[in-house]
Amino acid sequence: MTEMMTPRKHPVAPLPEAGTLADEIVKALMFRVGKNPSVATGYDWLNASIKVVRDRIIARWIESTQRTYEAGGKRVYYLSLEFLIGRLMRDAFSNIGLMEEMRDALASLGVDIDVIAELEPDAALGNGGLGRLAACFMESMASVDVPAHGYGIRYVHGLFRQEIQDGVQVELPETWLEHGNPWEFERRERSYEIGFGGTVEATTDKLGRVERHVWRPSERVLATAYDTPVVGWRGKRVNTLRLWSAMPIDPILLDAFNAGDHIGALRESNKAEALTRVLYPADSHQAGQELRLRQEYFFSAASLQDIINRHLGEYDDLRSLPDKAAIHLNDTHPAVAVAELMRLLCDVHGFGFDEAWDVTRRTFGYTNHTLLPEALESWPIHVFERLLPRHMQIVYAINAELLREAREGGLNDSQIRSISLIGEDGERRVRMGNLAFAGSHSINGVSALHTELMKETVFADLHQLYPARINNKTNGIAQRRWLFQCNPGLTALVREVIGDRFMDDIDALRDLERHAEDAAFRERFAAVKRGNKERLARLVSERMGLWLDPSALFDIQIKRIHEYKRQLLNIVEAVALYDQIRSHPERDWVPRIKFFGGKAAPSYFNAKLIIKLANDVARVINNDPAVRGLLKVVFIPNYNVSLAEVMMPAADLSEQISTAGMEASGTGNMKLALNGALTIGTLDGANVEMKDQVGDENIVIFGLTAHEVEERRAEGYDPRAFIEASPELSQALSAIRGGVFSHDQPDRYRDLIDGIYERDWFMVAADFDAYADAQRRVDALWTDPADWNRKAILNAARMGWFSSDRTIRQYANEIWDVPA
Ligand SMILES: *Cc1c(COP(=O)(O)O)cnc(C)c1O
Q1: Percent of the chain whose pLDDT exceeds 90
Q2: Which residues carry this modification: N6-(pyridoxal phosphate)lysine (predicted)?
Q3: Which of 6, 79, 81, 277 allows an S-S link to 333, with CB 3.0 to 4.6 Å?
């Protein structure tokens, strides 16, 4: 025997006992992953572990589906172009109740579950709050036992990975499917043809009256389903997230191929697959390109065919659809589903217009997520008509009916112009918000303030016409992910002092209130926070090579970078504070670290410039010995769900400082407060309701209200007056404008700062002094740790209302009419 042939010896752990979880993991590794335990990589262990737990999930999944079917109950269909899922392993293992058993089983095999958990890709099939809400809703629907299907797109590339190079955002492709996806099941048998373009033919009867319309698309692609099980808390129910992937339709390909057109066949194939290749990276901004409208129609049409298919499998008539299906539109992205359902009912199932319109309106509900004009979707008529000629006709028909009702309802001409599905100012466009509103029986906003503003602004006239339709459903977050999993230290402490009841009934978290007065408990609470801050400091040291002092005040602003969210206000305040510390070194300054995290849309010039500014300011401040130990600024790259899970529990202060009236709700604000951060914020979005819940004395509110912002704008706002009246602000703005932080390019921020002098749409100048004062109030609070910790504890204790379980129960009872 040569040396080469001597079998290599691998250190092999003793074989686990047959029938144990460890034994199952080893078997899965060998027979399902195809690896010898002694050479298995972390990915292999992750894969095998997921498969073992997945088997148990599937049993519950089948049981849940069967239960719904037998009960003949109504199902909820949640249509969303985005699901910002993040990692799934912890959610699923812990909800099914196997987290600790899996930890022990893997430990007995020499594998650390926390290490392999870090290998799971972060599924970023969304941009920010809207997509994350959809993910929390999916988890909550399973947890409160609502039979639901989420429908979306299986993007091959989710939201881009962000690198910061020389302070500049660089976008890199994201490849979450690189190592396969053990959670998903491809359902080839669930495939539907989706058409685009072509012509519409009308068939007529003997008298020449139009009987039916037949759409003959010029292009077709296949939508294939990929299902992911969504496990509810304690495994109560397992629902389905069904994501569609586009594929070429074989016959077309075969024709081209047989005709010798191999390149043509390949081109068709690439074109089909391009449809679901990437997520549009624009947040609170309309994407605008034709491919986006294709994506919207593709997933809406596939979902509707699937829903109708399921309905007709159980019932023989689509007239009962509204009693058995509640279809929910997450923003206007799936609004074309309104026209598609009308088409299917009229053209395929023989309904008359009136009856189809009645069924449609009783089936759909719609959530509005923003009032920002640049985010309100509309499509040029010529694009819409070319891509969806039959839907264009249906939109006109719906519009005729809508305008008839409007005239009957006494709306004037200008109101009628505003509610029309077709915008006539400039290029004629299809307004998706109005279409979604017209086609739904319920339209909801996502916080009390946002809902009121919706009634006063975008939908004022539609609201006058249909006063019963608009209602509020304040957003929420899933406490399983945003407390139990991301903050095991706090969760264990809470369980110890108030028992486990809050884990099933989050309102019981209020029992924590009485411990806020207990000095010993406050110490333990502070120790948990300290541990979480050390964990974040470690992450920053590993990723960025920066050393941070965990005893400093951790001041955190993490969210998409957008002018309305006002990261710029925070950065300008950092510059002013820097100047103050240097001018008054004798004062007792509170050591503070300002953290930033967030992605900018690649085409959003100012947002990217703000990232650069944060990094420029950080470089100067962090290298100045005059403020060492007192002030640091850190921009952590690639903010995503997994990073959020480390940052939320580590925050002392949560920055929620949007221009009032512009943040519809926010959910990052809820995650941070639930983990014991104090909020500094404006009276915007859900901050208003957070203030009501936690109490005025436990939150730091500053700045103009939404109505004051409106008034200022109406009366002609002059930012210069505010700048001249505030020496700190003018000093900070001049420093930035003059190149103090950009020696390599002194005029880098000239236009950005001139924008504040000249227009300041987001009212940075008007709110600056109030914000700086509020920060000094925060400093004063920080110097009394007992008081700070009492407030932090009360924040956590009083955030239970912001559970997405509460939100989902309200949707179920008040919109969907399903039990929850
Ligand atoms: C919660 C969350 C958001 C939303 O944050 P807001 O502060 O509400 O804008 C965005 N991205 C991620 C990764 C989140 O977890």
Answers
A1: 92
A2: 671
A3: 81
For residue 302, which of 37, 73, 77, 91 has the smallest C-alpha distance?
Answer: 77
User: Which residue puts its alpha carbon closest to atom 15 of ligand 1?
Assistant: 641
d(CA 792, CA 487): 15
Q: What is the DSSP letter of 421?
A: S
132 C-beta closer than 6 A to ligand 1: yes
Token duo for residue 614: 């944060």
Label residue 518 left, alpha or beta by phi (over 0 means left) and psi (-120 to 50 means alpha). beta
Taking the centre of ligand 1 as the mean of its atom positions, its distance from the CA of residue 651, in whole angstroms, is 14
Ligand 1 in reach of 237 Cβ (< 6 A): no
β-pairing verdict for 219-231 and 185-196: antiparallel
Residue 328, exposed/middle/buried by CB under 10 A (0-12, 13-18, 19+)? buried
Phi, psi of 553 (to 5 degrees): -70, 120
Residue type, 756: I
Distance between CA atoms of 672 and 666, rounded to whole angstroms?
Answer: 11
Q: What is d(CA 87, CA 119) in angstroms, rounded to the nearest whole number? A: 9
Q: Which of the four pLDDT bands, split at 50, 70 and 90, describes residue 206?
A: confident
Q: How would DSSP label each residue in 324-379?
A: HEEEEEESSTTTHHHHHHHHIIIIIT---HHHHHHHHHHHEEEE-----GGGS-EE
In whole numbers, what is the pLDDT of the chain averaged over residues? 95
292 touches 138 (CB < 8 A): no
**CB–CB of 313/401 below 8 Å?**
no
Active site residues: 369, 559-560, 565, 667, 671
What integer pLDDT is reported at residue 284 of this predicted model?
82
Pick the closest to residue 459 from 493, 476, 436 (CA basis).
436
Question: Of 368, 364, 380, nearest to 303 (Cα)?
Answer: 364
According to DSSP, the β-strands at 325-330 and 75-79 are parallel
* Angle, CA of 170, 648 and 504, to the nearest 5°: 135
Distance 38 CA to ligand 1 centre (A): 40
Q: Which domains does the chain have, with CATH numbers?
A: 1-72+89-118 (no CATH), 73-88+123-474+808-816 (3.40.50.2000), 485-802 (3.40.50.2000)
Section 782-802 average pLDDT: 98
**Residue with tokens 């109490």, as numbered in its chain:** 695
Q: Which pLDDT band, with edges at 50, 70 and 90, does 13 fall under?
A: low
Q: Are 319 and 359 in contact (CB under 8 A)?
A: yes
Mean pLDDT value of segment 222-231: 98
Distance, in Å, from the CA atom of 449 to the CA atom of 658, rounded to the nearest integer, reads 14
Confidence of residue 148 (pLDDT cuts 50, 70, 90): very high
Residues 6+ away with beta carbon under 8 Å from 252:
220, 268
| Residues whose CB is less than 8 angstroms from the CB of residue 767 and which lie 6 or more positions away in sequence, other chains included | 569, 657, 659, 682, 702, 703, 704
- Decide whether any atom of ligand 1 lies within 6 Å of the 667 Cβ: yes
Q: How many CB atoms lie within 10 A of CB 475?
A: 28
Ligand 1 centroid to residue 686 C-alpha, Å: 13
User: DSSP secondary structure string, 223-235?
Assistant: EEEEEEEEEPGGG
Residue with tokens 């799971």, as numbered in its chain: 120
Backbone angles phi, psi at 344, to 5 degrees: -65, -45
Please give the number of the atom of ligand 1 that sits closest to the Cα of 598: 11
- In 513-612 the beta strands, taken as DSSP E runs, fall at 553-558, 592-597
How far CA 406 is from CA of 265, 369, 400, 415, 738, in Å, comes to: 50, 25, 10, 9, 55
**Main-chain dihedrals φ then ψ at residue 328, nearest 5 degrees:** -110, 135
Smallest Cα–Cα separation from 627: which of 554, 578, 574, 556? 578
Q: What distance in Å separates the CA atoms of residue 517 and residue 507, rounded to the nearest whole number?
A: 20
Distance CA 740, CA 512 (A): 48
Q: Which residues contact 405 (CB under 8 A, 6 or more apart)?
A: 465
Question: Which tokens go with 548?
Answer: 């941070």
